[in-house]
Design a protein that fits this description.
It is elongated, with a radius of gyration of 20 Å. By secondary structure, the protein is of the alpha+beta class. The protein is 19% helix and 33% strand. It has a domain at 28-102. The protein has a three-stranded antiparallel β-sheet, with no helix packed on it. A three-stranded antiparallel β-sheet has the order 4-3-6, with no helix packed on it.
Length: 118
């Protein structure tokens, strides 16, 4: 009877460990977007518990059209931020331009929340 209880406890501990590992993922969000002259900048933040590996892409859409893609070529650790610019010359086309930046726009990184990238 004691052996069964010990096995049950070990199995329970292993399952808890596996569950916590499965929940640890990066989570990329765009925290800021700004212009500096004709350049558009953004700030990405990893709000997750694991690093977001280099190689994913950030997209810039203006007035519904994708105009530029920037490759993130560094890892972004948990809680870290990254300022990034696009190879695009911005010119205001109307009183209001709709500017949307999307982190990991091709869903390369498996994240805690895939719906908060813009």
């Amino acid at each position: 009877m004691m052996k069964i209880k010990k096995r049950f406890i070990w199995v329970f501990i292993i399952l808890i460990s596996l569950a916590s590992c499965a929940l640890s993922k990066p989570d990329l969000v765009v925290t800021d977007v700004w212009s500096d002259g004709s350049a558009i900048w953004c700030q990405l933040m990893n709000t997750g518990d694991q690093a977001a590996s280099a190689g994913h892409q950030t997209a810039l859409d203006i007035d519904g059209n994708q105009v530029s893609i920037a490759i993130v070529n560094v890892n972004i650790g948990p809680g870290q931020r990254l300022d990034q610019t696009f190879q695009y010359t911005f010119q205001c086309t109307s009183v209001l331009d709709d500017i949307i930046v999307t982190a990991d726009y091709q869903d390369t990184i498996i994240e805690e929340n895939e719906s908060n990238n813009s």
